[in-house]
Design brief:
mainly alpha; single chain
Length: about 160
């Protein structure tokens, strides 16, 4: 599904007036790194979700689900810190250098909301309402990061 979202964003990019922003090499590398981390994070989240689906087949008691997950949930949770810090650095550099990437501000907000929704799911027994919200936020994060990658070019 991320490939389809990426394709749609690319089509929008191609069909509009393309205004690129010149950025430093380090900024572009961190931006590409954040996009790669987001893809890995989404894949890890998919694996955690698959585990939840399997656990849910054996017990309907949501209070038992998190305890039955393996180490991937901890890696998924820890990865979010790295993504947040990297994105905060991008946001700060964007502001400091006046690159005018609106999408990086939106990315940081989405990451913050994603971390909050993930923590609530982890500590409050995976509320049903937050599962689709968490998924939607992850697609939004990918979209904002991908758009910034398309708009940026190294000086």
């Amino acid at each position: 599904s991320l490939a389809i979202v990426g394709l749609l964003i690319s089509i929008i990019w191609i069909s509009t007036e393309r205004q690129r922003v010149e950025v430093s090499r380090s900024f572009k590398l961190v931006l590409l790194g954040v996009l790669a981390l987001l893809i890995v994070q989404i894949l890890l989240g998919t694996q955690v979700r698959e585990q939840i689906d399997e656990i849910a087949k054996t017990t309907a008691n949501r209070k038992l689900w998190i305890a039955q997950l393996d180490v991937r949930v901890l890696v998924h949770r820890s990865f979010s810190v790295l993504i947040f810090i990297s994105s905060a650095w991008l946001f700060w550099r964007n502001y400091k250098n006046d690159y005018s990437f609106f999408s990086l501000g939106a990315l940081l907000v989405f990451i913050f909301l994603e971390v909050i929704s993930g923590a609530v799911m982890y500590y409050l027994n995976v509320p049903k309402i937050l599962q689709p919200v968490h998924l939607l936020l992850s697609v939004g994060m990918f979209s904002f990061a991908f758009w910034a990658v398309l708009r940026s070019k190294i000086r």
